[in-house]
Amino acid sequence: MAFPYPLITLEEHFLSESVVEFYSANSRPDPYQETILLRRCREDLVEIGDIRLNSMKENQVSLQILSHAANALALDPQTCIKVNDELAKSVQQHPESFAGFATLPMIDPGAASKEFRRCIKDLNFVGALIDNNCNGRFYDDPFFWPVFETAQDLDVPIYLHPSYNDQTKALLFEGNYPDAIAQTLSMYAWGWHSENALHIIRLFAAGIFDKFPRLKLIIGHMGEMLPFQLDRIIRISGQQWPMAGLKLERQLRQVWDENLWITTSGMFTVAPMATVLRQYYPFTRNEWGLQFLRELKESGLVTEEVLEGIAYKNAEKLLGIKAKR
Fold it and tell me: Is 83 part of a structural domain of the chain?
């Protein structure tokens, strides 16, 4: 059964050899070679060509927004420039199929802001995708805020993507089981998502949305566990936090409605989507995503207008792009 709408996918990664070289120069192993459960997808990540394009065609994906895969080490400005130039070439070769999110050197916010502007103005990227931490540091520290100010000035979104964090892995996820299990628990099995959700709340509590009220952030994986907890956090932050001296102009419900965009990004089951839809409407295979949308259509949970928005119209509006019809 054909799906009736074009599809735009926002979390589509690639792996640059420039980053692998950066790891080597800093005596850091490449996680996509070292980690047994990630090694299996390395070939798919380094390929931006016929295999990817054929998979898109077979599964009705009209446009992929490409971004670099999560990094195990904060990248320097020179490496980010190489990554972005590499991505720009692929986008230029297939402009109807690909668009780009910038990779930024968050370790140097001044350089990151400069590279952000170059990517939007000169390379025609549609936003940036940044790792969820910078060598273990989170972005509620105002040190990083020039990058978010730049995003507001450029009127483009930042995708806050889960990434490796050795500090939380050792503290929370290592236990009486093989280290490969601890790795998955600290990453895509649990830790990445809970940490990314916490990061959004940290940014909110630090007042970043009061400082930059037009900031647009994208979070993946059905909202990184936030939809399930949202009403409780709204009550606590609105009723209790002011008693502790934190009085924010923009409350969490307003931030959720106006500053945050949600993608499915690999969470391809209907049940959690029901939670997302009640709160907000907004390294897997393309065919799973297409099957999920077919099931969502058949479920009766959404109207045709909402389904069309999920498939491509929300992304078109947010990113200023057009899907092939």
Answer: yes
Distance, CA of 52 to CA of 41 (rounded, Å): 13
- Alpha-carbon dihedral 26, 123, 163, 307, rounded to 10 degrees: -160
Nearest to 154 by CA among 126, 131, 123, 132: 126
Q: Is 16 helix (H, G, I), strand (E, B) or coil?
A: coil
Q: Give which of 90, 192, 163, 151 is closest to 318, Cα–Cα.
A: 151
Q: How far is CA 78 from CA 70, 81, 162, 238, in A?
A: 17, 5, 23, 43
Q: What pLDDT score does 40 carry?
A: 66
Dihedral in degrees, nearest 10, Cα atoms 224, 229, 231, 233? -90
User: Strand, helix or coil at 125?
Assistant: coil
The segments of the chain whose pLDDT lies below 50 read: 268, 275, 277-283
d(CA 186, CA 53): 31
Range of 239's domain? 7-319
Cα–Cα dist 217/282, whole Å: 13
Of 195, 206, 222, the residue nearest 289 (C-alpha): 222
- Classify residue 2: in a domain, yes or no: no
pLDDT value for 206 = 98
**What pLDDT, on a 0 to 100 scale, did the predictor assign at position 283?**
44
> Looking at residue 175, what is its pLDDT?
93
Q: Tokens at residue 160, please?
A: 């806050």
- Counted domains in the chain: 1
Q: Which pLDDT does position 281 carry in this prediction? A: 38
Q: In this structure, how many other beta carbons lie within 10 angstroms of the beta carbon of residue 74?
A: 20
What's the pLDDT score for residue 278? 46
Report the residue count for the chain: 325
Q: What is the CATH number of the domain that holds 13?
A: 3.20.20.140
Residue 199 falls inside a structural domain:
yes
Does 284 map to a domain?
A: yes
pLDDT at residue number 265? 63
